[in-house]
Design goal:
Length: about 220
């Protein structure tokens, strides 16, 4: 195989060799569905109908691809959560609904990816460190959300952990729950998380945000 450092960098982003995003998407799908051992260059090349050497136009080696997977996980899951926690809301219940919406079916948080990365963390101290750092960042964002609405730091911390650990529990236990059942529980969850009940108007907006029609 040619020294990848000598490959011309022109047109590395797309073309007949595929694209960096294409390789990364294939790796993410294989990782989530079949685990870390499925993320190997030749099987991914076969999946994409590309040559193995095409891979090296976008990644130095498999380790670089795995690092990119972790970067993608942080950009997808951690950023979606922290953005939601910092989003504008007039009330704490609206803020909590904004946060919960991230985890709902069709939301930006990819539960399967989070579960796969947490499984990977049991095999790698470096990955475990990144997971711990991501958890700390997520909790800090939720804690700041509660503090923004006047909760004392200790109470904000406990409420943040209650919100986050419930959501991660859903993912880790791979809970199967139809949308109607989940929606029926949302007002109770929000009251538990915040100490206040969401208004009917807030719930209607939340349902619309999640694409839920309670009349069906």
């Amino acid at each position: 195989m040619a020294d990848t450092d000598q490959i011309d960098t022109e047109d590395k982003s797309s073309g007949w060799r595929g694209s960096r995003e294409g390789w990364l998407t294939a790796a993410r799908e294989a990782f989530v569905s079949s685990g870390l051992d499925a993320v190997k260059i030749q099987p991914l090349a076969s999946r994409l109908n590309l040559s193995r050497t095409s891979f090296y136009w976008f990644f130095k080696d498999r380790a670089a691809l795995l690092d990119a997977l972790l970067d993608d996980w942080e950009a997808t899951n951690t950023r979606s959560l922290t953005d939601a926690a910092g989003a504008y809301a007039e009330t704490v219940t609206e803020a909590a609904l904004n946060l919960v919406a991230v985890f709902m079916e069709g939301g930006p948080f990819e539960a399967g990816l989070d579960l796969a990365v947490r499984g990977w963390a049991h095999q790698s101290e470096d990955v475990a460190a990144r997971v711990n750092a991501a958890d700390a960042e997520r909790l800090a964002a939720i804690r700041a959300m509660f503090e923004r609405f006047g909760y004392a730091p200790v109470e904000a911390d406990v409420r943040a952990r209650t919100v986050y650990l419930v959501q991660i529990g859903y993912i880790s236990m791979q809970v199967v729950e139809d949308m109607a059942t989940r929606m029926a529980r949302i007002p109770g969850y929000i009251h538990t998380f915040t100490g206040q009940s969401p208004t009917e108007a807030e719930l209607r907006r939340f349902h619309a945000q999640c694409g839920f029609d309670e009349g069906r």
